[in-house]
Amino acid sequence: AEIRLNDKFGHTPLQGQQVWDWAEALAQHSEVEGALTVTYLTEPHRACAKQLADWMREDCGFDRVEIDAVGNVVGVYEGLTADAPRLLTGSHYDTVRNGGKYDGRLGILVPMAVVKALKASGTRLPFALEVVGFSEEEGQRYKATFLGSSALTGSFDAGWLDQQDAQGTPMREAMRRAGLCVEDIPTLRRDGSRYLGFVEVHIEQGPVLNGLDLPLGVVSSINGSVRFMGEAIGQACHAGTTPMGQRQDAAAAVAELILALEKRAAQVPDVVGTVGLLEVPQGSINVVPGRCRFSLDIRATTNAARDACVADIREHIARISEARGVQIVLEETMRASAAPSHPQWQAQWEAAVSALGLPVHRMPSGAGHDAMMLHTVMPQAMLFVRGLNAGISHNPLESITADDADLAVQAFHHLLTAVASP
Ligand code: HGY
Ligand code: MN
Ligand code: MN
Ligand code: MN
Fold this sequence. Notes:
- The chain is of the alpha+beta class.
- It has helices spanning 15-28, 43-60, 106-120, 147-153, 171-177, 208-212, 250-267, 303-324, 343-355, 371-374, 402-420, and strands spanning 31-32, 35-36, 64-67, 73-77, 86-92, 128-134, 195-203, 216-222, 224-233, 237-238, 271-274, 278-279, 287-288, 291-300, 327-336, 339-340, 362-365, 380-385.
- It is globular.
- One manganese (II) ion is lined by residues 92, 103-104, 137, 202, 369.
- Homodimer.
- Keywords: Hydrolase, Lyase, Manganese, Metal-binding, Purine metabolism.
């Protein structure tokens, strides 16, 4: 059946194609040696920020567009009155290394297409629409996950400024080179009472919607997560002459820990655990590893399940340490609470999906999102969009269709219609 939008806000057909085209064009600014990699304040990152700001100003007709003190791209489409409340929306434009074109970006481009249609039809809402392209969510160049959205919620960690990247460049210096004014960061904090809430559109980054053959899903809760950087310290020694029973092999200790994590996480349906970074610093093929560095990423739908897994892993660490004579130290680098969707905003997304004639599928988010930060200062809820290739993400195969993007635009229009005329 022809699914058409409530044309009160003048939804023009093929806005999904506009979103798709923008994502393709943005990806052109994002290639580093052929891989789509946009890490904080690197040249591709600055190019993407400028491109988003230019589109907001020239293509969409936002009333105000700025790049703020941490590199967020902020566009405001004013409401009917200057003192109107605001609806906040958006997502991140940075990517993981060798990432995809839609993780984060879809949640910026969909509301941009909506504002473009509102402007074209001369429509003003009884609230302002503030669309933010968050500058840093993935924490790739610096271990500063959710940096962009943290700045808006007053939880920017000043300690991040002195963190150095792999080349030894402190974040403070990277910001100075990008022309950002560190002193202004505290002014970015939003007063939650001025906002109706935060809504975020994001690709699902998983196989569920594909499995159900559904284009859209409504997020019920975002899993809580915690991340660590760890190091095992044993004893480097000769690979040829040291008997197996007399080694303090740091890499073997971490290998045992990885398998213990995999087994423990698999025991509980809603817990996942991953070691994504693993290295033997100054390792050699003929030296028993004396040191081994690794990361831990543990998530669950509840903080309690997440923390129970962390406690078990700490017990494994003590056991492995003792048995192998290898010291293992952990440093927590990120902790984000599970963020249940606000019932009213979740209901708004559900009504919007129903209005399109689609079944409503509620689902938890295994991935972390900027909405977890906004959750601390205002009501939030998310809409998921089906990904192709079984929803693969954090991978160049990440992809969506223009039709599904168009349904997301229509759902967004419906949500605005409902919020504007309760
Ligand atoms: O890791 C995540 O969940 C997200 O991609 N930052
Ligand atoms: Mn991501
Ligand atoms: Mn994301
Ligand atoms: Mn599990």
